[in-house]
Amino acid sequence: MNGMLAPEVLVLGASGRVGSGVVAALLEAGSPVLAVARDAARLQRLAAMHADEPGLEVMVASVADDGAAQDLARRIARRPRPLRAVVDATAGVRRASRLLDQAVPVLSASLEQEVLPHLAAARHLLPLLQQRGGDRYLVAGGPHARCGWAGYGHASVAIAATRMLVQVLHEEAQPLGVRVQMLSIDAPVWTAENTARACPGWHSALGVGRAMVSLLARSSPDARCIVTYADNAGTMPPGLLGREFASVLDAASGAPGASDAGRAA
């Protein structure tokens, strides 16, 4: 294939609960993944879990502010692989407390930790995504964005603000040819590490990850800005990205019968 590389999916917050599920689901579907997180130790544990996956690369970086996100975009721009999509699975620290029991600056800090990294990432990665041939930008939404989360008032307000941010980005990114969407997750997420304390109704990280993959793999993209996660969306979609990447690369290389194969897929 003349040395061409399959496009990769960038996962921000890859070592977190949702992020780790997205990474696993993408690898399961045959997609190369660039996993980004700011905690080097957790990122190495993620890499060790998928040590037999040649399609996984990890990068220690942050999108905590404009400067950090700009530096990340510059590093990705130097990579040889095309960029197919971005999945933003970053999340702020969520501590139990009542709004009325805390000083006003506590809410300001929650907004800064939860919302601003999403904006910093979008400002620098959306233009890069367009330049490198990608067209999907997904954000993982936290629980209780529309109804208050009992005992987590600061998180509820910040998550609701993130939901509005995505709605604005959805409109503003249309001229770039990039579809920005949020997968709204209405309950906390469990992984192998927190299974013992998980409650009924929590969603599995892998199930959420598979739902993200389904959004990325649809040949006719879902037009909605906010897509609500449902448990049945977490089943493994057949074929998906591996087949899609193969047909795209075959067509690009001029392989005989490639156009017919692409239509059949």
TrEMBL record:
Source taxon at top rank: Bacteria
Keyword Oxidoreductase attributed: yes
Gene Ontology MF annotations: oxidoreductase activity
Pfam entry (one): adh_short
Keywords: Oxidoreductase
Matches recorded under InterPro entries: NAD(P)-bd_dom_sf, SDR_fam
Record-stated family: Belongs to the short-chain dehydrogenases/reductases (SDR) family.
Protein name: NADP-dependent 3-hydroxy acid dehydrogenase YdfG
